Amino acid sequence: MKKEWFFDRFCGEQIVIYAEDGKIVEAGVENEKRGDVLGNIYKGKIANIVQGMQAAFVACGMERNCYLPLNEGAAIFSSYDGSGKSASTELKAGDEILVQVVKTPRGTKGAKVSCELSFVGKNLIFLPRTDFLGISRKIVDEGQREELLREADGLREPGQGFIVRTAATKANKRALKIESEYLKRVYRSVLETARNAPVGTAVYEEYDLPVKVMRDSLGDADVKVYVGDGELYEKIVRLARMRSDLGEKRIVRYTGNRSMFNEYGLDEQIFALTDPQIGLENGAHLIIDRTEAMTVFDVNTGKYTGDSDLESTVLKTNLLAAKEIARQVRIRNIGGIVAVDFIDMTEEAHRLAVTEALEAALAEDRAKSRVLPMSDLCVTLFTRKRMSGELSSFLLKPCVHCTRQGYLLSDIYMAMRIRTAILNCFAEGYRAAIVELNRALMNKILSERYFTNELAGAWRGKRVYFVPHTVFPEEKFSVRGDNAEVLSLPDTAQILY
User: Of 52, 69, 191, 317, which is the most buried if we count CB atoms within 10 A?
Assistant: First the structure.
């Protein structure tokens, strides 16, 4: 199997894609300015306590106050000076505490936070105030599990804990000790920073997207890494030099004239993620419906009529659907509650087979999931841990006209598509590109200066003209090349920057 990672950055976004045999398996996007708050630790202040919800709302300097559950077992409320309050201690408005984001803000909901802090390394997760030992479910050898847990137990002090990650199977005792000491130093540094920091300060920030991927996902001997941006390439190479399991030779700087995602056949796959309908290989299809509370998948036979009886036709479709649903929630990073309306099956054995197929497909995902038994109505519920923001927040935006089932392609994704078309235009030998597009989108691209890096690099010496249209829908644009010395353009045309 060909395993490939693709890293790129443009328009202020960092994008990472993992593909197997040319098919996208995982994707992530992160804004370089805003980053991802998941895992960040903030010095917060209790804004108010809602006893009826057994929750506190904490001001952490974000747009909305964060939600802190007060009934999560033996929670420890760590104050800014490192001291702790037990769960039985009554918090009050104005208390200053350290909280860590465990669920990112979504829609009108603020971030969910916890006072049970954790610090993630390549092999270990350090829990400075939680007396707990755990190990990755993907480590299945019982002897190895016992040995690693014993090693982790010897690395902790009273009241502390560790979770052993899958990568620890390839680490020796010395590497585990060095990493544990490093994570402890990070925690002490966080406490020191928090003492004098104002409320709302992020006293610890998780690594950015490329570094997290390098830490958590890379290390397979067969993987190849392609990087489309020069600055990002240098960063990844520096990180690779610190790793014994990731050779620098496997990292390739993409220097082609076209968009890297376009060159490797990923563009159309990314665009397909904006469609609520997903085709299956037998002609059946899925429909995705996103709501505030959950994501719903509806399975349909579509054009598939089967080869024999109805029950066999339905079973085959549902088995294909189970595998594709697991792939889609991983690619789109769909978290929370997911409901699947499978096609009705009369035989209990077939329902069990579909449930097992869904569980097996979800087991390949890094994010934890829990599948409930299928109901008599052939509806299955499962939960999936949200690793970061959903990909849909990058690709789509709410539409006031309710097209695309309530969503349009986002401004940043439209800019990405226009960037690809301009690169292709120049790759065909043209010196000038004329882009006709919606006026509001043009103004957004210009005001956000999305293409600053391209103009200083790949587009140096080229000309890019924007021609705005008031009648163009936001998703419509065209790009054409021209090599004439004098171009015939309307008065409204504007040269890019």
Answer: 317
